[in-house]
Amino acid sequence: MLNYLVAMLTFAGLYALMAIGLNLIWGMAGMINLGLVGFFALGAYASALGTMKLGLPLALGPVAAASLAAAAGAVVAVVTARLRGDYLAIVTLGFAEIVRLVASNEIWLTNGTDGLSGIPGPLRGRIAPEAFNLLFLAITVASVALAVLVADRIRFSPFGRVLRAIRDDDQVASVAGKRVLRFKVQAFAVGAAIIGFAGALYGQYTSYVAPEIFVPLITIYIVLALAAGGTGNNRGAVLGSVLVVFFMEGTRFVAPLLSGLAPVQVAALREFTISVSLILVLRFRPEGILPERLPRPKEPLP
């Protein structure tokens, strides 16, 4: 049972990293991103290939993953600079599918649908599995804490104020002399880097990545976590991720009580329960459990 709880906390931390990255892109800059699982996959494959085929040190795997994801995020931001709303959502969703299809078909690079196995992790094989799980949980928690610190510094900085202005009305921000495209590209790159870093940690933790892992449903879960926790609030992103993961896993224990339903029906009921819970949260707490609190402007000196 302890190992199960540690695993759930680790996955909650990985979801929290992705939610923080999405918060920078969507919650602060107002850019809809339904392709975050694509950056998650890029990070996982970049770290795995770098450490397994290029011989990079284990610690540099997440760095390479974050760098590649940031570069991809900058390109996506430039390409979609003039798109808004549904059009931006469709293009980013298409980007994620392109990444998944490339991973499925470029066998020479990614081993296709068989995936990459045996990805090295910190001290894996040299310590007991229980100790490895606890070590990786500590690494994940430290990564989340660092990501919250960095994201909060961005949020309360002049850069963050410009992002919120762009989110509210990018034309007004442009008239005020702000280079909207540059700020959007930077926000997208930083958010994608955090998501790619989460992908690298996922690969090192599970020691296996394959295209079928990176499905659009992961994006939906992260969007749910951020919306439920509080869009624009990094701590809300963390809280929402923990609640979503433990709610999804907690519903597994209801399955034995539903003896009259087939396993497929139980799985559908779990997804239905999650959806209803989100609707209730958005109905009674549309701003999220931890709503965004904008910093008060400093009073002028007398």
SSE blueprint:
Layout lengths: L1 H27 L7 H17 L7 H20 L5 H21 L1 H4 L5 E2 L11 H27 L2 H11 L1 H6 L4 H27 L1 E2 L6 H14 L4 H17 L12 H22 L18
Antiparallel strand pairs: 1-2
Characterize this entry briefly.
The protein has 302 residues and is mainly α.
Describe this structure in words.
The chain is mainly alpha-helical and 302 residues long. It has one domain (2-215). 71% of the residues lie in helices and 1% in strands. The chain has twelve helices and two strands, in the order αααααβααααβααα. It has helices at 2-28, 36-52, 60-79, 85-105, 107-110, 129-155, 158-168, 170-175, 180-206, 216-229, 234-250, 263-284; strands spanning 116-117, 208-209. Strands 1-2 form a two-stranded antiparallel ribbon. It is globular, with a radius of gyration of 20 Å. The N and C termini lie far apart (61 Å). The mean pLDDT is 90.
Count of helical segments? 12
What fraction strand? under 5%
Structural class: mainly alpha
Q: Mean pLDDT across all residues, rounded?
A: 90
| Count of discrete structural domains | 1
If you compute it from the alpha carbons, what radius of gyration comes out, rounded to the nearest whole angstrom?
20 Å
The largest sheet, given as strand count, sense and whether it forms a barrel, is:
2 strands, antiparallel
Helix proportion range? over 70%
Total beta strand runs: 2
From the spread of the alpha carbons, the general shape counts as: globular
Side by side, the strands of the main sheet go 1-2
Summarize the helix and strand pattern as letters.
HHHHHEHHHHEHHH
Distance between the termini: 61 Å
- What multimeric state do the chains show? single chain
Stretches where pLDDT falls below 50 for ≥5 residues? Answer: none
